[in-house]
């Protein structure tokens, strides 16, 4: 069985599936189809399946042309789980959010496992890609399949965990060229996982267990969360001390070893950094282990939107205004620049906090045309004279590179810049307030020319 699967994977003649065709699953399915596999996508969102069937994409990193080239030829998306019975391999890319209580919500994985038990046939390779706590593949997939079927992992079916590292919007690293960590439940599982993934991805990093692979992903994202927490704390300290945190970070980044820069902001967002560390600390508590770094970083990062709210209030106060009744124009609603992802975006929280305090809030985002605020749909407004003139305060919450910041600066009355996009603006009138300290005087020209500090 193993040999036959190996042959199919290496020759590109396998039938493979991807469950959950979102930011992670769709690019994976496209890579597999481009390799020549017959790919079946399964997703509960009929809306998304309709878009794909028309040869269109809803994920920014995948173009309509890429979908058009494979749809109906060797890529078959749909919502029918019974196709599982004819697959040689299936990758699971469903969401792993947090419940309101901040505990892992693994219900999406459980729902998929239920379907696997129902439809999977002998000899299938199952690869979990969703980010989750160490032990999930073993406890929620292996144990359940072995309990509810006669299949044994490594003998009758094969099981791996391979964390997805995709960074939406990253022009340099994508699904294909980002090294892929992969751990198997048994040696044959790992061998098959590596055979499949190395047939269409550039670099596989095998590890000795599914738990190691699960922990790798959580280490990576905890590392980011903790370091962002550190610079956010440094930033608040710099605010108090009147030191420009951004300049400090850029200058520190010239050290060629032992330092890598992280940047502050009005909070963290996306489906990964705010959530994944909580998966780890939740699991660790079962071992009576308390992750103080994780909790502290989450506390500092989670409070940044409120810190931004307070700074916005101070700016208005200094100009004899209150938040209540002021018109506040938020620039950028996505959680980071040049993407359309709103999940956990700090700009959303700032929007709601300002609204709760009685401000009239409106926003512009070139990538996000609308969002749901409770029952109400809020639409992006134009970035034009009228909307800038109306604003008592413009809050730059996301630094999309397509926005004309010179125009924003010249037209606005007051600006609160949480992303340092105004770094080259000479602010003689106190128009701009920067998160992370004040803008200092310019370096003399001859010094600037010799500067080795790279701009962000
Ligand atoms: N977005 C990222 O940048 C990123 C990066 C690395 C890892 N991850 C991880 O990958 C996983 C998926 O994240 P995503 O960003 O692709 O999420 P997503 O919300 O974009 O996509 C998930 C898809 O799964 C579908 N789905 C939900 N329940 C399903 C079910 N029972 N059966 C079939 N389909 C179902 C949804 O309709 C959706 O299309 C998560 O665990 C996430 O933490 C995400």
From TrEMBL:
NAD is among the record's keywords: yes
Entry keyword set: NAD, Oxidoreductase
Top-rank taxon, per record: Bacteria
Statement: the UniProt record of this protein carries the keyword NAD: yes
GO terms of molecular function: UDP-N-acetylglucosamine 6-dehydrogenase activity
EC number, UniProt record: 1.1.1.136
UDP-glucose/GDP-mannose dehydrogenase C-terminal domain: residues covered: 329-424
Family as reported in the entry's similarity comment: Belongs to the UDP-glucose/GDP-mannose dehydrogenase family.
Name used for this protein in its record: UDP-N-acetyl-D-glucosamine dehydrogenase
Organism: Guptibacillus hwajinpoensis
Lineage of the species this protein comes from: Bacteria, Bacillati, Bacillota, Bacilli, Bacillales
């Amino acid at each position: 069985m193993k040999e036959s699967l190996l042959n199919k994977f290496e020759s590109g003649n396998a039938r493979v599936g991807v469950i959950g065709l979102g930011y992670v699953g769709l690019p994976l399915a496209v890579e597999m189809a481009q390799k020549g596999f017959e790919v079946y996508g399964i997703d509960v969102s009929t809306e998304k399946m309709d878009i794909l069937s028309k040869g269109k994409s809803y994920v920014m990193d995948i173009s309509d042309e890429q979908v058009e080239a494979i749809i109906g030829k060797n890529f078959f998306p749909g919502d029918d789980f019974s196709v599982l019975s004819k697959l040689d391999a299936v990758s699971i890319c469903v969401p792993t959010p947090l419940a309101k209580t901040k505990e892992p919500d693994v219900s999406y994985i459980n729902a998929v496992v239920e379907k696997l038990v129902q439809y999977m046939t002998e000899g299938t390779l199952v690869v979990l890609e969703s980010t989750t706590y160490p032990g999930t593949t073993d406890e929620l997939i292996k144990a359940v399949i072995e309990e509810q079927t006669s299949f044994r992992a490594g003998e009758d079916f094969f099981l791996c965990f391979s964390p997805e590292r995709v960074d939406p919007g990253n022009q340099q690293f994508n699904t294909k060229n980002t090294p892929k960590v992969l751990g198997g439940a048994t040696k044959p599982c790992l061998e098959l996982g590596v055979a499949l993934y190395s047939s269409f991805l550039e670099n596989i990093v095998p590890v000795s267990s599914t738990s190691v692979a699960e922990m790798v992903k959580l280490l990576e994202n905890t590392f980011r969360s903790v370091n962002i927490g550190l610079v956010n704390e440094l930033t608040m300290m710099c605010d108090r001390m009147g030191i420009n945190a951004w300049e400090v970070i850029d200058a520190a980044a010239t050290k060629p070893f032992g330092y890598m820069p992280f940047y502050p902001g009005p909070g963290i967002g996306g489906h990964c950094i705010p959530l994944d560390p909580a998966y780890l600390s939740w699991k660790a508590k079962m071992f009576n282990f308390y992750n103080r770094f994780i909790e502290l970083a989450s506390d500092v990062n989670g409070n940044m939107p409120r810190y931004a709210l307070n700074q916005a209030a101070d700016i208005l106060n200094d100009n004899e205004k209150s938040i209540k009744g002021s018109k506040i124009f938020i620039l950028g609603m996505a959680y980071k620049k040049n993407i359309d992802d709103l999940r956990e975006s700090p700009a959303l929280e700032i929007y709601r906090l300002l609204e709760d305090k009685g401000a009239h809030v409106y926003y512009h985002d070139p990538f996000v045309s609308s969002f749901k605020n409770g029952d109400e749909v809020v639409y992006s407004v134009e970035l034009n004279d009228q909307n800038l003139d109306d604003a008592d305060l413009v809050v730059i919450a996301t630094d999309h590179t397509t926005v004309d910041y010179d125009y924003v600066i010249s037209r606005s009355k007051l600006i609160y810049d949480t992303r340092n996009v105004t770094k080259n603006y000479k602010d003689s009138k106190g128009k701009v307030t920067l998160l992370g300290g004040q803008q200092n005087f310019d370096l003399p020209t001859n010094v600037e020319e010799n500067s080795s500090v790279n701009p962000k």
